[in-house]
Design goal:
The protein is built from three helices and two strands, in the order ααββα. By secondary structure, it is α+β, with helices and mostly antiparallel strands. The radius of gyration is 16 Å and the shape is globular.
Length: about 110
């Protein structure tokens, strides 16, 4: 990626973050996600949907897991299978976290 593109993305990260704010998405795109009609998938303040699925979810294993060892996730058993549930974790929905991932994704260094 050339430096002009990186600079453009860096300048617009805040706009990207604002665009994926839960309340903003819910009002602009009410049919996009079932959580916009019922209740939030995570009951946290300032929920952001940019990283809807956590980039730290370990899908290399059938039962899943957490790559960063978050203590907010939990195992549950369904049909005799152990499955990792991230429902109580808010890690990927914090602005500073997905801003970090955006910068990493686009190779933007401070």
């Amino acid at each position: 990626m050339n430096s002009e593109t990186k600079r453009f993305i860096d300048q617009h990260i805040k706009k990207i973050i604002d665009e994926f704010d839960f309340e903003n998405r819910k009002s602009k795109n009410p049919n996009e996600c079932p959580c916009y009609k019922d209740k939030k998938c995570h009951e946290i303040e300032n929920l952001n949907c940019f990283l809807c699925y956590c980039p730290e979810y370990d899908n290399n294993k059938e039962e899943g897991g957490c790559k960063i060892g978050s203590n907010k996730g939990k195992w549950f058993v369904s049909e005799n299978k152990k499955i990792w549930d991230c429902g109580d974790c808010n890690y990927p929905h914090k602005k500073e976290i997905f801003e970090k991932y955006l910068k990493k994704l686009f190779g933007i260094t401070e």
